[in-house]
Structures are given as structure tokens and as C-alpha cells.
Amino acid sequence: MLMAETFLPTFEHLATAVILLDGQSHIAYLNPAAENLFALSSKSLIGHSVQHVFTHTEQLDAAMQHALTNNASYIEHDLTLGIPPHGKLHLRCTATPLQLNKYLLLEFHTIDRPLKLAREEQMLDQTQANRLLLRNLAHEIKNPLGGIRGAAQLLEHELEKPGLREYTQVVIQETDRLVSLMEKLLTPQHKPNFSSLNIHEVLERVRSVVLAEFPENMSIQRDYDISLPVLMGDKEQLIQTILNLVRNAAQAMQGQGNIVLRTRISRQVTLMKKRHRLAVIVQVIDNGPGIPVHLHDKIFYPLVSGRDNGHGLGLTLAQDFVSQHEGSIEFDSEPGRTCFSVMLPLK
After folding, report:
1. N or C: which end of the chain has fewer CB within 10 A?
2. Which superfamily does CATH assign the domain made up of 2-111 to?
3. Are strands 256-271 and 217-223 parallel, antiparallel or unpaired?
4. Domain ranges in the chain?
5. Any residues with CB less than 8 A from the CB of 159 and at least 6 apart, and which?
6. Structure confidence by residue, pLDDT tens digits, 255-302
């Protein structure tokens, strides 16, 4: 381990993800950037082969063999690597032999980063447009609803047959429902009330609510990193954000399936064009049917829903709340696995 100890101070501060393999191609060291990239801790990786840790390693195996055979650096520009249970990453990998092939240095660069930055910028623009649209829509609809409800109440008092009042009650109840919906549209305009909080308390609150709504065949598992520090946030907004994600997953599976709530720490991340030393990642993972492909680019738009009875506001509000925390929200979905990831900076 002399080589790892010699270069460890340098590797620790690199933004590049670095993994050092020993002569048996077992992981001897990885730096914090690698832990962040792969969302895995060094304790779970040290001593294991890359084939044991990752899936879809055919391209990586070929790059490693080419570097060792020629005793020279080899670059794989388009590498796909599976990271159970997080999905796949598209990377550029440089394999470099060290000390007469006694060690092999692997450097990983994500080629998705420019796309991620572009998506974040698009999310900011989209969120601002959504806020304006929702505010205008709510005001335009909410004002006449009061008149409709009042007219229905007056009409109810004039009806002689009690059976006819059933119809006015329908009008009143549906009006109240629309008023409640308009209040939800206006809620994001309130400034968040920041205070220190434990993100796991937020998740436990959401878990209890959803299990109460779907008590029969719904399983919500915990995969928490209990070492996470407290963060500054609006507790009610974060509860609503995670609740929208978990409830959407439960409804997509019609109350029958499995949801995993996972928390992790992330290091040296850029969120909303700001660099943060640490951030908290909250993931909501379900084994449902997945989000239809044609909705992937517009799933956060208001009034867009993958369900026939969905109002299409839950994800819009979640995105708005997360943006007010200077965080990001994104998803990865395919049949059998959908993962929403919320990243919140630790300040």
C-alpha cells in the first residue's frame, strides 16, 4: 500500500474520480470524488474486484487489459458502467499502470456533466415560468369560484324538494375542491421558513403517511445513512416534496409494490451554478411500471401526469420547493425501476 499512501494526499483533493487497483485488480483505494460519483462508500469497496462492485464491466476490463499489456495509459472515451443499485453511468476512463504494473490507476470523468448543467439551467427557467403560470392560473380560477359557491348555497335554500339539494351539494363540494387546488398552486409563492432539521425525520413522517394511505400491499424500506448531519431547510416544504414523490410512486403501482427511501452524502457538487463541499442526496426508488418515455422531457411541467386521474401538480410543486432550497431534482426511469433523486446542499 506504499503507492496509495504516497499519492493519497493528492488524490484526496482531486475533483477527478480516482480508483487505485492492486496487482490482483482489487480496489486498494478510492478518493472522495469517486465515492461521490459512484454513490458508494470506500468501506464497502476496498478489497473487492471491480467486477464484483460494478456490472457491465466488459469495456472497463478491455481498457485495463490494454493498459497492462502495453504498460501505457489507455483511454476509453465512451464507457458504460453499471452501479448497483443506482443504475448506469456514462464515463470516460483513463487506465494507467504504475510501478511496473504493480498498481493500476483508473480515472473517471462523467460525460453527463455538461448535460446535467444544462438540465439545471433549464430547470431554473422552467420553474420560474411555472410559478408565473400557476400564480396567474390560480388567481383567474379562484375568484369566480367564490361566486359559484355562494350562488349554489342560495339556490339550496330556495329548493323545496330535499332530494334536489344533493345536486347543489355536488356543486359546493367540487367548488371547495377546486379552491383547495388553487391554494396549492399559490403555496409555492410563500418564502421558505429555514431551520435546522434531520432529513430522516422528514422521511419517517412521509413513510407513516403513505403507509396509512396504502396499508395492505405497500412496502416502504429504509436505506439511511445515519451519519448525515443536520441541514437547513423548510421542514413542511421538504415533507411535501418527498410526500409527492412517494405518493406518486405508490399510486403508479396502485398501492402494490416496494419503495425504498435512501439517503447518502455527496461531496464537491455543483448545484444551481454554486459549488458546495457537501450535499445530501435523498432517493425515492420504486419497482413500478416506470414513467412513459414520451413524458420524460416534460414530467415536471404543470398539469402533466402519467395517470388518468392525476392533476399533474405534485412534481411541479416538488421541483419548485427544491429549487427554493438551491437544490436539484432529477429522475431515472425504466420498467421495473424508477428513481427520483433530490440533492440538497449542506451549508
Report:
1. N
2. PAS domain (3.30.450.20)
3. parallel
4. 2-111, 118-188, 191-345
5. 165, 168
6. 899 999 999 988 778 787 778 888 999 999 999 999 888 887 777 776
